[in-house]
């Protein structure tokens, strides 16, 4: 009986696509997710059930995450930081295999709560992470000349546009994905105990 309860707990609130429902495009997107690691194929398997908006979103997210003028690994750092801030168990444990191949390590990820004082991060990365933290805090936190003056010291305006869109997508869709209960925060902390430590140490990341 306990195993059935655990199975029910693990089920997302919206079901995964079935094999018979998969279009060629859905199969391609799921296969790509399996290879790249992010977005996780579980969520892609939910989104692609909607052949219009869901498929369009997965394509847009892939373009935003992997293409553009900003380094992918920088965006991956911002994604992880925002994901931990809204305690999304799924998003917090997902890792991009592409970013890993580019040199992003778990040691560096573990320094995110203290990024301002860590030598692991470049000034550009620190600037982007400051913006991501403020973005997560709320719209008023980023609505100032000082915020954009800080960004302009490290980024072109074209790069700032991409960073803003990326943070908006990570924050907004991340809240939706969190509510799908693909993986609870409690389960994520069991997979990666350091998440619980972050929760205790950092009010801004956990709040």
Automatic annotation (TrEMBL):
Question: A Pfam family in this protein?
Answer: CMD
Pinpoint the Carboxymuconolactone decarboxylase-like domain residues: 52-133
Q: Which residues form a coiled coil?
A: none
Which GO molecular function annotations are given, in alphabetical order?
A: peroxiredoxin activity
The UniProt transmembrane annotation reads none
**In its UniProt entry, what is this protein called?**
Carboxymuconolactone decarboxylase-like domain-containing protein
Q: Which species is listed as the source?
A: marine metagenome
Q: What is the lineage of its organism?
A: unclassified sequences, metagenomes, ecological metagenomes
């Amino acid at each position: 009986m306990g195993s059935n309860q655990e199975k029910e707990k693990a089920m997302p609130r919206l079901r995964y696509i079935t094999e018979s429902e998969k279009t060629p495009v859905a199969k391609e997107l799921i296969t790509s997710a399996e290879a790249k690691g992010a977005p996780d194929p579980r969520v892609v398997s939910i989104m692609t059930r909607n052949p219009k908006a869901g498929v369009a979103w997965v394509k847009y997210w892939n373009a935003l995450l992997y293409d553009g003028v900003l380094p992918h690994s920088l965006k991956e750092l911002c994604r992880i930081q925002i994901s931990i801030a809204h305690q999304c168990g799924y998003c917090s444990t997902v890792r991009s295999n592409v970013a890993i191949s580019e040199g992003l390590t778990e040691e560096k990820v573990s320094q995110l709560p203290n990024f301002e004082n860590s030598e692991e991060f470049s000034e550009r990365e620190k600037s982007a992470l400051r913006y991501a933290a403020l973005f997560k805090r709320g719209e008023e936190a980023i609505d100032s000349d000082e915020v954009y003056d800080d960004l302009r010291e490290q980024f072109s305006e074209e790069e700032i546009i991409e960073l803003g869109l990326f943070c908006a997508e990570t924050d907004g869709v991340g809240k939706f994905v969190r509510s799908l209960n693909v993986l609870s925060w409690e389960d994520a902390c069991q997979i990666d105990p350091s998440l619980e430590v972050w929760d205790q140490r950092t009010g801004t990341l956990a709040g």
